[in-house]
Design a protein that fits this description.
Blueprint: E1 7-13, H1 21-31, E2 36-42, H2 48-57, E3 62-65, H3 70-76, E4 79-80, H4 82-87, E5 92-96, E6 99-103, H5 106-116, E7 125-129, H6 133-144, E8 149-153, H7 157-166, E9 172-176, E10 188-191, E11 214-217, H8 226-233, E12 238-241, H9 243-258, H10 265-274
Parallel strand pairs: 1-2, 1-3, 4-6, 7-8, 7-10, 8-9, 10-11, 11-12
Antiparallel strand pairs: 3-5, 5-6
Bound molecules: NADPH dihydro-nicotinamide-adenine-dinucleotide phosphate.
Length: about 280
């Protein structure tokens, strides 16, 4: 068995060569003077769990998990956080004395990024677009900010309805289809659908926007995402993309593993310049 003299971490995914996580975590490690190595690892559907077990046997301390293995990581974990339980998805595994703990840091990453941009969610009317893994992952941390109302809208309506029913909260929450949305502006619209990845737009009416609506797309790229461009074309003043969420969810994972909270301001600038 290969013995390493610094703590080892991995990110699993397929594809994985595009992942910014090794760069991000090496940056955090240098900044906080932590001795660790973080690499990316391609896995297949039928060998992901086996690979994780081998990594644990080789002394691995933890790993991140990205598409399409977040569900398998959830199954592998022997205990999970409440966020991961609602999401049914794990993006962070922590190995401790043979125990595998699972967490989902996407939601805390989103909230940290929104706060970085001075967006308050308390008492606000929020629309969450999508009911896939990302939407599920951010639900609890969003509700913890005590919005006035949180509506989940999804193309497949049943998924939005089921998700809203999973949650036990005093916040007014419901799951609907796009055609059910009333013509009234939201304070914050979060696009947690993957529509932007295929240069597509969720079928949202412009009556859901005012100039003061804040539009957040979890997807990021050098140019505006289709969703954020649509918002700007309809007079929205503030649009934010998901690059900061990527950095912040990584910072939460890093803190869970290392007990040190890294700074994210400089890294945000570096990654933005690299897009
Ligand atoms: P899933 O595949 O689990 O879910 C996709 C969701 O998008 C579903 O709700 C689906 O609706 C909806 N959708 C897809 N295409 C369209 C469309 N054309 N119009 C309307 N709705 C559509 O993906 P994830 O939830 O894991 O990821 C969603 C997005 O969030 C991805 O783009 C991902 O890159 C991003 N993300 C970003 C992160 C960051 O750190 N910035 C972290 C995590 C995710 P239906 O149920 O009807 O199929």
């Amino acid at each position: 068995m290969k013995v390493h003299n610094v703590d080892q971490y991995l990110v699993y995914g397929n594809p994985i060569q595009q992942s910014k996580s090794p760069f991000i975590h090496q940056h955090f490690a240098e900044q906080t003077h932590q001795a660790l190595q973080y690499r990316s690892q391609l896995a297949e559907d039928d060998d992901f769990k086996l690979q994780v077990r081998s990594f644990i046997a080789a002394g691995g301390k933890g790993c991140n998990v990205t598409a399409p293995f977040k569900g398998q990581a959830f199954e592998l974990a022997q205990s999970v956080s409440e966020e991961a339980r609602i999401a049914g998805a794990v993006n962070t595994l922590i190995f401790n004395d043979g125990h595998i703990a699972g967490d989902n840091t996407d939601g805390r990453g989103l909230i940290a990024d929104l706060k970085f941009h001075q967006v308050s969610m308390t008492n606000k009317r929020i629309l969450l677009v999508g009911a896939g893994g990302a939407a599920r992952g951010v639900l609890l941390p969003l509700l913890a900010e005590q919005p006035q109302k949180l509506i989940i809208v999804n193309r497949t309506v049943e998924k939005a309805e089921q998700l809203a029913k999973l949650i036990d909260t005093p916040v007014k929450t419901c799951g609907v289809g796009f055609a059910d949305l009333a013509d009234k502006p939201f304070d914050l619209i979060i696009n947690a659908s993957s529509a932007s990845l295929s240069n597509d737009l969720p079928p949202l009416k412009s009556s859901l926007l005012s100039a003061d609506t804040i539009c957040y797309d979890m997807v990021y790229r050098a140019s505006n995402t289709p969703f954020n461009q649509w918002a700007m074309d309809n007079g929205v003043k503030t649009t934010i993309d998901g690059l900061g969420m990527l950095v912040e969810q990584a910072a939460v994972s890093f803190e869970i593993w290392r007990g040190v909270k890294p700074e994210t301001v400089e890294l945000r600038k570096i990654l933005r310049a690299q897009l």
